[in-house]
Write a structure and sequence with these properties.
- The protein has helices spanning about 1-5, 25-40, 50-65, 70-80, 85-90.
- The chain is mainly alpha-helical.
- The chain has 2 domains: about 1-45, no CATH class; about 45-95, Orthogonal Bundle (Arc Repressor Mutant, subunit A), CATH 1.10.10.60.
- It holds the Pfam family HTH_8.
- One of its GO terms (biological process) is regulation of DNA-templated transcription.
- GO terms for molecular function: sequence-specific DNA binding.
- Belongs to the transcriptional regulatory Fis family.
């Protein structure tokens, strides 16, 4: 899965006048998953849901913290979670 995520193109996010990205993040996730499945060579993955969440959550937290310059209150608000939940997730991802 990490290889599939690493192969995603790094594109600047362009924001339309509505304030939403022109190409949804969903598209990139779908591409990464399709790439992941194409590399399995007939093998069946196990715990795919947990794998995807683990691969996405850590970089999400890292990027949001960078965008908020380490301000956990702002990061939690941006993520739509409480500051306590953010701190718990940071510890789980070894980012605290």
């Amino acid at each position: 899965m990490q290889n599939a995520l690493d192969q995603l193109p790094v594109l600047p996010i362009q924001v339309a006048s509505t304030g939403t990205p022109q190409q949804p993040l969903k598209t990139y996730v779908e591409q990464a998953l399709e790439n992941y499945f194409s590399q399995l060579d007939g093998n069946s993955p196990s715990n795919l849901y947990g794998l995807v969440l683990a691969e996405v959550e850590s970089p999400l937290l890292e990027v949001v913290l960078r965008q908020t310059r380490g301000n956990q209150t702002k990061a939690a608000k941006l993520l739509g979670i409480s500051r306590g939940t953010l701190r718990k997730k940071l510890k789980q991802c070894d980012l605290a």
